[in-house]
Design goal:
elongated; disordered N terminus; binds zinc ion; 3 helices; 2 domains; 3-stranded antiparallel sheet; alpha+beta; 151 residues
């Protein structure tokens, strides 16, 4: 526990609900009997019901900690507490060509905080992601998270 979790960690878009109400963030791994939870409890709780959506809030502390870690993409400022809006979509470059990959939300915030920043969609991103980030950044103040932007 407490190990570093890389941003390449896989997302856990499903829920594994145990009979006593513990809800894990889970990832489907082939069939009903094979899923992994973000907290990496092993063996996976066999009597949990795997849900195919992420609608139910996670309440397993281990999963929350793991999900919390992976929901901060490299573009997120260390002092920005807001979670990622989704998967990493774009790369933001500053005027020295230093780049950080980010979700749309954090990339927008980063871009809004850079002078002469640019944004490029990753090859895997849906069309228009970079343009949305660019447009959103235009509506933001620099360092928006510092004064209650996330209230
Ligand atoms: Zn868990
Ligand atoms: Zn992010």
């Amino acid at each position: 526990m407490g190990a570093e979790v890389s941003i390449t960690a896989l997302p856990h878009p499903r829920r594994a609900v145990e009979p006593f109400g513990i809800v894990h963030a889970a990832r489907y791994a082939g069939d009903r009997q094979h899923f992994t939870t973000a907290c990496a409890v092993y063996p996976a709780p066999v009597d949990a019901v795997l849900e195919h959506t992420a609608d139910r809030p996670v309440n397993c502390p281990g999963c929350l900690a793991a999900v919390e870690t992976v929901t901060h993409c490299p573009a997120a400022h260390a002092e920005d507490p807001s979670p990622c809006s989704g998967p990493v979509m774009v790369t933001v470059l500053d005027k020295h060509n230093h780049g950080a990959a980010g979700c749309e939300q954090h990339a927008s915030r980063l871009l809004a905080s850079l002078e002469g920043g640019r944004v490029y969609g990753l090859p895997t991103a849906p069309e228009g992601a970079a343009i949305r980030v660019f447009n959103t950044a235009g509506t933001m103040r620099p360092f928006e998270w510092l004064d209650g932007g996330a209230s």
